[in-house]
Amino acid sequence: MFRGRTAAMAASVIAVGVLGLTGCTSGSGGGSEESPDAAGTAGTAGTAVSTASPSSASPPVSPTPSPSKSAPASASASASASASKSPSPVPVTGPKQKLVTMTVTGGFAGVNQKVVLRGDGTVLADDKGDPEVRRTSAAQFTELRTLLGDPALADVPEFTIDTGAADMFQYALQFNGRTVMTDRSADQPALDRLIDALSEWLPGH
Questions:
Q1: Distance between CA atoms of 124 and 130, rounded to whole angstroms?
Q2: pLDDT along the chain (205 residues), means of 10
Q3: Where do runs of H (alpha helix) occur along 57-204?
Q4: Beta strands 178-182 and 159-160: pairing type?
Q5: This model's pTM is above 0.85
Q6: Cβ pair 178, 100 in contact under 8 A
Q7: For every residue of 19-31, which 3-state class applies, written as one string?
Q8: 182 contacts 161 by C-beta, under 8 angstroms
């Protein structure tokens, strides 16, 4: 009978020990799990942070274009270009300088005349070997030099003669290091003005 009680008590102690171990295991397992409220709070905080990050960076602001100033600059450049192309008197390097020589030939009577504008303001007019020297005024000298300084003369071709026309006057002009020949059959305003002015100094005028 005593052995039976002893065995029963031993069984009870073992059962209590088993139950104690089971309770400890459940408690330690529950401690490792995160509570739903805490997890939810952490998730909400993470969402808030990730949502706030993109919105914190403001979009780049495009600079406001300033009014264009190219038009006034272009107008000013055009005005300067026009001013730079205005005729100005050719320079004089010495009294014996030949500023321009014009020879006129042809016509019904077979004209052969020449006029030379020199640096001292004198004009040498020659008609078939009979020279005559005349002097220009200061205004006339400046006018002739200004006609010679016309930039449009640079665009005049060196030869404009209608070979099919007969008995026309032909003009050969030497100026600015070049020779130009024309019968005035083509419209060349700058050259025509120079020829008209020099023709006033030909013999017989």
A1: 10
A2: 48 47 45 43 40 47 50 46 72 96 91 96 94 96 98 96 88 97 96 98 89
A3: 70-84, 138-148, 189-199
A4: parallel
A5: no
A6: no
A7: HHHHHHHHHHHHH
A8: yes
